[in-house]
Amino acid sequence: MIRRKLCFYGAGSMAEAIVRGLISAGLAEPADIVMFNRANAARLNELRDRYSVRIAADDKAREQALREADVIFLCMKPKDAADALRRLSPVLRDGQLLISVIAGLSIAAIEQLIGRRLPIARTMPNTSSTIGLGATGISFNDAASDAQRELVLNMFRAIGIARVVDESLINAVTAVSGSGPAYLYYMMEAMIDTAVSLGLAEDTARALTVQTVLGAARMVLETGEEPAELRRKVTSPGGTTQAAIETFERLDFRGAVGQAMRRAAERAGEMGAELERSIT
Ligand SMILES: NC(=O)C1=CN([C@@H]2O[C@H](COP(=O)(O)OP(=O)(O)OC[C@H]3O[C@@H](n4cnc5c(N)ncnc54)[C@H](OP(=O)(O)O)[C@@H]3O)[C@@H](O)[C@H]2O)C=CC1
Ligand SMILES: O=C(O)[C@@H]1CCC=N1
């Protein structure tokens, strides 16, 4: 258990995933967590009722939550970050640790927006953190102490796996694990739709698809075998899997995945550049 005061500036999907993950892992007490958003009171009440966390519903309470926090999680959309961080600037105090989950926003841009040097962790988590199966990339600025680095790693390791990467690689992490759950949900949507069109009942199509994805991921983890080797074991020569994989190859599925992931990484860079232009 870490007895630190955690403030979530932004209370959307990613903030909820981290909060739920930290509480379920027993790493944080709901009473040590305060969350706020810009205007959506119904959403805040829902979060309070669901997790017993504290909420800050007006400007005075938001300012107090920020002042009292040991750790401030920056959880707003990139388009809202410049305005939100400028507002943060006058209430920050030495020793506070900032953890950003904002795609594209560089550490240098955060430092410029808050107008001072504080310990910062730029992270790229994913929504599977909700169930303790997140995958997070993290970079720190030089102001982060060893103890602060350890604290950040402990928090993200409590809700999944975490790897420290050079900041130049955070956009690559975004393309792999930040956006990655959506690629797999997309694949699952296509598999379920096709299964139904092949005649299976919707609930059977869904159950078989979900278990197949879960089983495949666990096979890679638990056998330690490479995905290519596990694929080979499923593919009987001249059989059904070979027919399917040949169809994927003809349609350049690998190329499509590559292009999509490169585009995601590039988009993270563009969002960062757009943000930087809006600062200067
Ligand atoms: N969703 C994901 O899978 C992932 C998201 N991220 C990053 O996480 C960040 C948040 O994404 P996500 O949770 O999906 O977004 P959401 O839209 O779900 O949540 C954004 C939150 O920010 C709040 N907000 C915006 N501006 C302000 C402000 N000035 N003051 C207070 N609160 C504010 C919003 O409040 P209100 O509703 O009142 O406007 C809302 O609660 C993004 O930067 C994204 O890049 C990173 C990894 C994965
Ligand atoms: O789509 C986005 O921009 C965010 C960042 C990674 C996942 N969701």
TrEMBL record:
Keywords, ordered alphabetically: Amino-acid biosynthesis, Cytoplasm, NADP, Oxidoreductase, Proline biosynthesis
Q: From the UniProt record, which GO molecular function terms apply? A: pyrroline-5-carboxylate reductase activity
Q: Which reaction does it catalyse?
A: L-proline + NADP(+) = (S)-1-pyrroline-5-carboxylate + NADPH + 2 H(+); L-proline + NAD(+) = (S)-1-pyrroline-5-carboxylate + NADH + 2 H(+)
Please report the stretch or stretches of sequence annotated as the Pyrroline-5-carboxylate reductase dimerisation domain: 167-271
For this protein, what is the EC number?
1.5.1.2
- Every Pyrroline-5-carboxylate reductase catalytic N-terminal domain range: 5-104
| Pathway the protein contributes to | Amino-acid biosynthesis; L-proline biosynthesis; L-proline from L-glutamate 5-semialdehyde: step 1/1
* Highest taxon listed in the record's lineage: Bacteria
Cross-referenced InterPro entries: 6-PGluconate_DH-like_C_sf, NAD(P)-bd_dom_sf, P5C_Rdtase_cat_N, P5CR-like_CS, P5CR_dimer, Pyrroline-COOH_reductase
Where, per UniProt, does this protein localize? Cytoplasm
Name the Pfam families for this protein: F420_oxidored, P5CR_dimer
Which HAMAP family does the record cross-reference, listed alphabetically? P5C_reductase (MF_01925)
Functional note:
Catalyzes the reduction of 1-pyrroline-5-carboxylate (PCA) to L-proline.
Would you tell me the protein name for this molecule?
Answer: Pyrroline-5-carboxylate reductase
Q: Gene encoding this polypeptide?
A: txxe 2142-proC
